[in-house]
Specification:
alpha/beta, five-stranded parallel β-sheet, two-stranded antiparallel sheet, 16 helices
């Protein structure tokens, strides 16, 4: 898919990617970074160029012209698609096909894997993509992924960070990665942001407007509206020739957000399920501690 690009397009290439992990505050953090005058991240969240076959077939030029047009003078351009981390088998070869290995930097946000898994599940329930209980959904996960590897129901699998990170470290140098922990981001966003600016070789004396994490637990105001937005319908096909794909995506995202509200009661994870998942994640957490030389005891116990 490496196609000839002009000098102008070469100067639009993103130099960094927020690759994951999903449900770890990546959208929130991209909005924080976008406050920096030297950084540009597309307003359409998650371009999904490298992990989506249809988007990738449109070509690298299309990707640059769609998301990074007229950004030649920006110091750092970034793509925030948290699914990249989890789809390393498809994403890494495509990254190497379109970029030189040394030209890229990666930002990876990690969160307590049990809390991440439950947040992932609640998200899919909220948008009417999941009807099973959390326990049942985790039990069905392997079967579902065997039938359709691209279905985003990998609640447990996506939290196996060490297993996935090994694939990235096998290709890219460790110093190309800036790893952030969700808990640090929530408790001290200013410090985490400045550390990230330094990693991206951007100026650090930037005043940030603190914004709340919007992608937290929520419920639809109207279940009928949410289902209409999510389900394929013939009437939606009428707009396709007239409205570009990513414009439709942006409109859909905004309509979904307008249709969300804070729940009266935030669902709680069953303590027995919490303990079960932590026991399942334990070996991977220990492996991650060794890879990153860090203590993650808080993730091992409820």
């Amino acid at each position: 898919m490496r196609s000839a690009i002009t000098k102008n397009q070469f100067n639009m290439k993103p130099q960094f990617l927020i690759i994951g992990a999903a449900k770890c505050g990546t959208t929130y953090f991209s909005k924080i970074l976008n406050q920096h005058s030297q950084i540009f991240i597309p307003v359409v969240t998650e371009p999904h160029f490298y992990d989506n076959d249809e988007n990738y077939q449109l070509g690298f030029q299309h990707y640059l012209n769609t998301f990074f047009k007229d950004t030649q003078d920006v110091h750092k351009r970034g793509d925030c698609t948290p699914n990249y981390f989890h789809r390393h088998g498809k994403v890494i070869p495509r990254l190497l096909e379109c970029n030189t290995k040394q030209s890229l930097q990666f930002i990876l946000i990690l969160r307590d894997p049990v809390k991440r898994a439950f947040s992932h599940y609640l998200h899919r329930v909220r948008v009417y993509k999941e009807s099973e209980s959390f326990e049942k959904a985790v039990d069905l996960e392997k079967h579902r992924l065997a039938e359709n590897p691209d279905i985003w129901a990998s609640y447990f699998q996506d939290g196996l960070y060490a297993q996935q990170l090994k694939h990235w470290f096998a290709v890219f140098e460790k110093d190309q990665f800036h790893i952030i922990f969700f808990e640090d981001m929530v408790s001290n966003i200013q410090t985490v942001a400045k550390q990230t600016f330094r990693f991206l070789h951007a100026k650090t004396d930037v005043e940030l407007q603190t914004i709340g994490i919007k992608n937290k637990a929520s419920v639809p105001k109207s279940s009928v509206c949410m289902q209409w937005l999510q389900k394929p319908m013939p009437i939606k096909n009428w707009f396709k020739p007239f409205v570009p794909k990513y414009t439709r995506k942006l409109i859909k995202e905004r309509l979904i957000k307008l249709n969300l509200k804070e729940p009266n009661n935030i669902p709680a994870l069953d303590p027995a399920m919490d303990r079960f998942l932590r026991s399942k994640y334990y070996p991977d957490i220990e492996a991650l501690e060794k890879i990153l030389d860090i203590n993650l005891n808080s993730w091992k116990h409820p």
